[in-house]
Amino acid sequence: MRGSGAVLVVLACLFASCGGDSQVPNGGLEEVLPSPTAAATAADSPSDKMTLWDMDSGPHLRGADLHPCWLGESGSCVEFIGREDILDLRDQGANLINASYDGVFSQRPPYDVNPIALGQLDDLIGWAEEVGIYVVIHFRTGPGRNEAAIVGGDDPLYDLWIDEDANEAWIEMWRFTAERYRDSEVVVGYNLMVEPRINTLIDPEGELSPLEVREKAEGTLQDWNAFAVRVTSSIREVDAATPIIVGSLNWGEAAWFAALLPTGDERTIYSLHAYGPDVYTNQDYEPGQDFEISYPDVVDDEGELITLDEAWLEQDLQPVVEFSETYDVPIYVGEFGSMRWVPGAPDFHRAQTTLFEQFGWNYAYYTWRADTADWDGFNLEYGTDPEVHNPVPGNPLLAVHLDRWAENVDFPVAAE
In angstroms, rounded to a whole number, what is the distance separating the alpha carbons of residues 189 and 39? Predict the structure, then answer.
């Protein structure tokens, strides 16, 4: 999710008290946490998980992003997401969790296994197998990378892109993860990194185009395309089957598909995050102040006057459409949406998902329940009134997503 004041609070410590840098030597891992048991193969589940990503007959996967816990003002974990939260999402009709979780290796040397983060992921996979919902594993942090490297803030950790040990450790983290979860019926994708914003390190002033950033990174540890190939190769050494997902640079923006290259792996999906335009979607709520922009509307978007409607949204996604058509690859919208209270939010969400359906793209709304204790800007269940902080059954914003989730027909059979 793109950085804004409230969003920074939401994400600032997702992985400090919720699974930060606690360490255990790799050799002692199995003494700390046993490997999860894979769910039995379901007769009506696809034997080849790539069929779920087939755009010609899709979308097949519609759901939501998930974080490990609800956060307090200081970033501490107030309440962990539990099995009931997973079951509630499944009972609403969603068949996909995009697990936007902390990486299972520590952020700083010696880059050992983080038993807290691994335990959270094991729990999620276990619950998903029990209730019957698919999971994409999507790492936010890990060796040489912290949350501030995504959303901004103090002390961003960029060692991943400048230190070979951190770079190799991230690759090893994914090899470890793939070997651990490759037999799970519910794990349908490995999304290599949440919003790989290397461009902000390469071009701090934001003066270069996506292609110029790509050219500047070539031959260095900051070459995202080359790094994705290396991670893919390592995963494929232990797991030849599970689909891999590669996102674009910056905040996963559609425009940055111009800098993206296919990895050459035939079982890879390419991902974007769709929040444009920020000037509309990121309007925070201030009591007593009116919102300036609604949907649809005529908007000043960074100095350009645009007509914000479905036609504009479709045009904004064209770099992704062209990438998919040029390379004949599937597309996944790993995050999308807006703050729940922006005027016209239900119509905006419906327009977004209409386009995803039209293109055959699988998608996950950002996010299911895990906001902060005092900020709930993405909670669909609370509806569009910013003064309401409890579930509102049948509210118009949630209804948009319930309508979409009702179209899901592909589910793993629950193990319970």
Answer: 16
Task: Give the pLDDT score at 68.
Answer: 94
Q: Which residues contact 4 (CB under 8 A, 6 or more apart)?
A: 282, 284
Q: Judging by DSSP bridges, how do beta strands 297-301 and 304-308 pair with one another?
A: antiparallel
Provide the CA 235 distance to its chain's centre, in angstroms: 19
Cα–Cα distance measured from residue 357 to residue 351, given in angstroms and rounded to the nearest whole number: 10
Domain positions in the chain: 5-405
The total number of residues shown for the chain amounts to 416
| pTM metric for this prediction | 0.92
Give the whole-angstrom CA distance, residue 329 versus residue 246: 11
Residue 234: φ, ψ to 5°:
-65, -40
CATH 3.20.20.80, applies to 5-405: yes
- DSSP label of 7: H
- Predicted confidence band of residue 154 (pLDDT cuts 50, 70, 90): confident
CA–CA separation, 81 vs 379, rounded Å?
14
* String of DSSP letters for 70-113: EE-TTS-EEEE--HHHHHHHHHTT--EEEEEE--SB-SSTT--B
For residue 43, count CB atoms less than 10 angstroms from its CB and return exposed for 0-12, middle for 13-18, buried for 19 or more.
exposed
Confidence at residue 33, expressed as pLDDT on a 0 to 100 scale: 46
pLDDT in tens, 98-153: 999 999 999 999 999 999 999 999 999 999 999 999 999 999 999 999 999 998 88
